[in-house]
């Protein structure tokens, strides 16, 4: 009798992974296609369900971020200062333009039809990819930031920009002349990741010091009273607290709960409204560099990839795991009332 092996608890590992650190991964809004950027200078497109590498583009330097345009094309942000459009269906690429330093983040706004990039040159740029090739024709505007841009997130017409020095700028894409709000992170340490709530009411922000802050756009006293921060991705050893950076935040598209990934190799799922942890997946081989839920929330892509927080040292190979998400892991639990009415 042959033993039946359950699927590995970490999920299915994708073949042909990047050969160096994974900087980001994202599911398409239209299918189970997964776009992955890496320090090995590549952007790869996978069909995550079929476990097939569909295409790959090489760059002049490490690729620090990527995002989809449509199901078979996307954009990349590279350390070689370039912003590129990649069309996998035709194997074609072109340069939308350049920053004066490595480009750290990239987003595509379906609302504005624009690409938004953030760079270590302390600026944000908006591009119209419909313009003919060539920087003068595609650049919509350049917006100075207080410091190097570390993370961007979009919801509808709102754009949240997190920079070095713990600055957070909130923009309305319809009026980029100045931020709608200038804020400071409520966490004391460097920002690692910012992600807007799917319902558009605020954002979650994580730091290098094992914490996540839950923030709200509405400046009324009632809304600001709802904000809070919590500790995560920590452990106690011999009476000492060991604290890990929280590299990744991904919201579940259906339930609005969210996953966090840290340098401790763990992925936790949280119910932000009820301030509860719903689930912790078993430990991954190394740091969690990036996370993304598929458009229907049935799959979670996990980049297990050392982020060099302890310098160059032997580490597990970079890998992408795609796990099937069970509703119990991500669905908020109903509040228990002590004495149900008779």
Commentary on this structure:
It is a single chain. By secondary structure, the chain is mainly β. It is 4% helix and 50% strand. The protein has 3 helices and 30 strands. The protein has helices at 135-138, 221-224, 327-330, and strands at 12-13, 22-27, 33-38, 42-47, 52-58, 63-70, 73-78, 82-87, 92-98, 103-109, 114-119, 123-127, 139-144, 149-155, 158-163, 167-172, 181-184, 191-196, 202-207, 211-216, 228-231, 234-237, 240-243, 246-251, 258-262, 267-271, 276-280, 288-293, 299-304, 319-324. The strands form 8 sheets. The protein has a 4-stranded antiparallel beta sheet with strand order 1-30-29-28, with no helix packed on it. A 4-stranded antiparallel beta sheet has the order 2-3-4-5, with no helix packed on it. The relative contact order is 0.12. The mean pLDDT is 93.
Key attributes of the depicted protein:
30 strands; 342 residues; 4-stranded antiparallel sheet; mainly beta; 3 helices
């Amino acid at each position: 009798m042959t033993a039946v092996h359950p699927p590995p608890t970490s999920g299915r590992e994708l073949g042909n992974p990047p050969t160096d650190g994974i900087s980001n991964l994202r599911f398409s809004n239209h299918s189970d296609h997964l776009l992955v950027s890496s320090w090995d200078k590549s952007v790869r497109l996978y069909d995550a369900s079929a476990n097939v590498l569909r295409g790959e583009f090489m760059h002049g330097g490490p690729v620090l971020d990527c995002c989809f345009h449509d199901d078979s094309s996307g954009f990349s942000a590279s350390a070689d200062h370039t912003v590129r459009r990649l069309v996998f269906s035709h194997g074609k690429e072109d340069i939308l333009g350049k920053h004066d330093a490595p480009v750290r983040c990239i987003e595509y706004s379906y609302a504005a039809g624009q690409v938004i990039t953030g760079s270590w040159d302390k600026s944000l740029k908006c591009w119209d990819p419909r313009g003919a090739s060539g920087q003068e024709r595609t650049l919509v505007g350049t917006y100075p930031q207080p410091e190097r841009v570390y993370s961007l997130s979009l919801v509808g017409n709102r754009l949240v920009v997190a920079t070095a020095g713990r600055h957070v700028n909130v923009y309305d894409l319809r009026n980029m002349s100045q931020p709608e709000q200038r804020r400071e992170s409520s966490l004391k340490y460097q920002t690692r990741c910012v992600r807007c709530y799917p319902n558009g009411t605020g954002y979650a922000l994580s730091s290098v010091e094992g914490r996540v802050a839950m923030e709200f756009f509405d400046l009324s006293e009632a809304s600001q009273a709802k904000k809070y921060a919590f500790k995560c991705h920590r452990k106690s050893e011999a009476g000492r607290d060991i604290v890990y950076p929280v590299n990744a935040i991904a919201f579940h598209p259906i339930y609005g709960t969210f996953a966090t990934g840290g340098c401790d190799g763990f992925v936790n799922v949280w119910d932000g409204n009820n301030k509860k942890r719903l689930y912790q997946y078993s430990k991954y081989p190394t740091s969690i560099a990036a996370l993304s839920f598929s458009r229907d929330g049935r799959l979670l892509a996990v980049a297990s990839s050392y982020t060099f927080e302890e310098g160059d040292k032997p580490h597990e190979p970079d890998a992408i795991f795609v796990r099937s998400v069970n509703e119990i892991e991500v669905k908020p639990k109903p509040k228990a009332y002590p004495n149900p009415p008779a």
